[in-house]
Amino acid sequence: MHFPFPLTRKILAVAALVASGSVVAQPSFEGPPPTRDVVASVPVRRAQYLARAQEMIDWRISRYAEIGLDKMDMATIAMKLTRDEDIAACDARVIELMKEPGTGPFWMFPTAMVAFAGRDKLSVEAREAIHEAWRTTRQLRGDTENHWVMYHTALYLMAELYPDESAAGWANGLSSAENRTEARGWLLDWMKLTTTIGQGEYNPTHYLGEYAIPMLMLASYADDPAMRQRGTMMLDWLFAELATVTLDGMPRGPNSRTDDTSVVERWYALATYFSWQLFGNVPVGEGFRGWGWGNYFSVLAENYEVPEVIYRLALDRDADTLQHDRARSRRIWRYSDEHMRPIYKTQYLREDYAVGSTQGGISDPIQSHVWDVTWAVDDPRGVHNTMFSMHPHSSGRVMQMFFTTYPEPMPIGVTSEGKPSYDSPDKLLGCSPYEQVVQDLDAVIALYDIAPDARFPHVNGFFSKDLEDVTEDASGWIFARGGDTYLAYRPLAPYHWVPHVSYPNSRDPEKTEPTGGRVLTSPHVKNGTILQAASVSEFASFADFQAAINALPLSYSLADEPTVTFTNLRGHVMHAKFGATPSIGGQPVDYAGWKLFEGTHLNSELGSRVLTISHGRLRRVLDFNTLSITDSVTP
Amino acid sequence: MPIPPVRNPLSRFRRLLSSGIVLGVLAGFSLSAAPVDYDFYLCANINRNYVIGSKIVTTNGLFSRDETTGEWQHFGYNDTTITALAFDPRDRDVLYTTTLNGIWRSLDGGDTWRMTNSWDMTEGRDVAVDPFAPDRVYLALPSGIAVSEDRGQTWQRREHGLPDRGKFTQRIALDRVVANRGLAGCEKGVFLTVDAAANWRCVLPTETTVNDIRQSPHDPDFWVAVTDTHGAWESHDNGESWNQIANLPHEHAIYNVTFDATDANRLAVASWTYGVWTSEDGGKSWTSRDAGLPENPRVWRVGVEPNTGRLYASVFQETLYYSDDFGRTWTPDALAGSLVNNFVSVPRS
What we know:
The complex is a heterodimer of chains A (635) and B (349).
Chain A: H1 6-20, H2 27-30, H3 42-67, H4 74-83, H5 87-97, H6 105-117, H7 124-136, H8 145-161, H9 176-196, H10 208-221, H11 225-244, E1 246-247, E2 250-251, H12 270-279, H13 294-300, H14 308-315, E3 321-328, E4 342-349, E5 353-357, E6 360-361, E7 371-375, E8 386-390, H15 396-402, H16 409-415, E9 432-440, E10 443-449, E11 459-463, E12 468-472, E13 478-482, E14 485-491, E15 496-502, E16 513-522, E17 526-535, H17 542-550, E18 554-557, E19 563-567, E20 573-577, E21 583-584, E22 587-588, E23 597-599, E24 602-603, E25 610-615, E26 618-623, E27 628-633
Antiparallel strand pairs in A: 1-2, 3-4, 3-23, 4-5, 5-7, 6-9, 7-8, 8-11, 9-10, 10-17, 11-16, 12-13, 13-14, 14-17, 15-16, 18-19, 19-20, 20-21, 21-22, 24-25, 25-26, 26-27
Helix pairs in contact in A: 3-4, 3-12, 3-13, 4-5, 4-6, 4-13, 5-7, 6-8, 8-9, 8-10, 10-11, 10-13, 11-14
Chain B: H1 9-17, E1 38-45, E2 61-65, E3 72-75, E4 84-88, E5 91-98, E6 103-106, E7 114-115, E8 126-129, E9 137-141, E10 144-148, E11 156-157, E12 169-174, E13 182-186, E14 189-193, E15 201-205, E16 210-215, E17 223-227, E18 232-235, E19 243-244, E20 256-259, E21 267-271, E22 275-279, E23 287-288, E24 299-305, E25 310-315, E26 320-323, E27 331-332, E28 339-347
Antiparallel strand pairs in B: 1-2, 1-28, 2-3, 4-5, 5-6, 6-7, 8-9, 9-10, 10-11, 12-13, 13-14, 14-15, 16-17, 17-18, 18-19, 20-21, 21-22, 22-23, 24-25, 25-26, 26-27
């Protein structure tokens, strides 16, 4: 069992900061939230982007000015090398660190970055220490998509750095040419998959860094101009999607992978670092978020230019946007007829809130997040600005689908390996085979038909500490307000409330802390949730909103397959029956006809390898068939 | 209990390698029931809750048992993810292991290694060398089955007859007396080949994974397979037909089965839920042998030291245990915190 564990990394980073005793200013975390005004001047925007990268670098370097250059981590060494500072200290620290190499992609790519940043600056001894570590240390490929991107990128680049090594020059017994061919083969296959049927780890709240940094390394270091171009284009691809799946810089659902904290505090994620770095539209996290993979992006940030069309997607939103996009599940080894399930994402963004969902079912078995409404806040720090429901699924059988494990150990193992809530009845993280979701604009119907012998046969709904005016109406609707968003949540079966808890120790499922929020728990296997959001500005009063919701036609049945027919606030009749294709406005949802991207800003035909990014008069076309980027502006 | 100190493991290993020509590989046994000396190995993961990115701070991977001291001596590389080991019967310096990365081959007794699979053949579950054509190596993958005809240098998929979906292959067991014949434990059942993996056919359908298949060292027609949800199965016609073994629990997974090379009547199985069960009448009756192991033991693997009949049990992330009375009493052994993925017996001559 092998799992990355961002929460643990965060804890370690915080612990390291505390242990250092340093109190180093981090302006963009400690200061007021950014204005989110569009910066029209390209030079000014670029200067601000570079200044943010320098803020990160200054902060990181300043920490080690206090605790000692002999303690530098790899990110700081790369920064020092890039700035041409303290090279002797970098030499010494590299030699020291190479005495105990790591075992996989999280060691490989930082080391590769230092090797490249220092290839003309580090001493012969330091460079040889790196070389020797790669010659003698076996590296594990890992078992997830982000692992493989880091592993193969690092392998590709190091084979480029040491181009003429025989098999004896590498711990894996392959020559440089063989390693380069192997890594290139995987990278091209991954890019092909992503640009034809979608990314497996779509919209991750943390793992964006594990993709963006390797792609920036390819764009910066690859000798092959085609690989450099691919790196740049993949960055555009990733960041265009980031811009459309964030609300004022905050990640929101759905997410292939998130964690116990950032599923409720949507801002609390590494993806926020990238919004801050690229767009400057959100406060960055403390320590630039967790373990700080953003550090590595900042080292090479000057090698990427944020296209104006992507910048505008993130900041210049004067109209509602709607995307129907596809992604894919992670690879399914067994117990499924599908090798990778298609994931159908619906994403609706307005000024005050965003609603997003997938169709439900199993995607990533541990950390996915299927649907939510997330509302805008002026300052997201510490705010739990989201609402959703889910079935707390826990299953060894599902683990076996995705991992080469036996049925029993993995549910227990993951709880002590960075996912403490996985096997908890009150968890809010994960997907379920017993959940089916349909979304129309800002309305969601989530149906549950839970096997009676499922480990946790109930539905959890998240009610944040930051909700206001929560009202349990006699009609059965629960009304609330979050920011400038009205929310109507309709549980379809009786429920009770339990306190929401966080997991302060990512390796200890027994240690919990109340957050002030609540979980609506409905202990019925035939179940459902209806959610309707609206802007406060659309109604004269909260009472008017409630009256409007109560007037909406709604019928449902929980006998046999849960079934709902609901006419939403936008006048569309939504019909959903568990196990059947839902319909909107009388038309079945045509999942088979969904494109890779189809919507206001991103469009791509399935399998085409061409993505069109558009905003207003701006348009950028990424064509992976010709490795071309074409910009155009409507006169 | 700490791992015993390693005393010149490679020299010990090479001494073992030079001890004779072997006729069988990977838990293969002698062609007859005549007494045979074996070497005994295991593949162990000794990093409790290891996750990718952690430093490997303990010694993992391949261990050979020193008969003189009873100690487990590490050799080869240090890796948390080795699942299987196989030797070339002609040359014990040629060995194959499966890991998270794929398949690794050594031509020099474990001094140097080459990762021989391509990026789309990873997370190998099992490896087997053809005893009749040792250049041919079989690889069990979560995505199916691959075969090499050049000692693992290159690989080709050989999956004709396996279902389009359901090819997850946990185990490859090659017949030690009939050439080109072998059984694969897959997601959808036990599959048989009689033409060196050119074709496969299902001889025991299952709804969940077949976790292990073993051929008796005493009777080549006698095979046992264990599964996730279908209990244990036996075949007395060399894998052609199968009957469920009575008197063994079968609602939860059984992870592996082992025969005792010193006693034709002795078998043992390991289960997370059921612990250790043994039979001493050729599989007719079974007894729980958990007494003396940690309470409610989650047993990952059982193995029998083939020269002595000593029974080993790997309890999940506990120390290794052994029993010299086939499970009636247990003694803690080395490898604290370990998880043994495989016990491997190799005949010396």
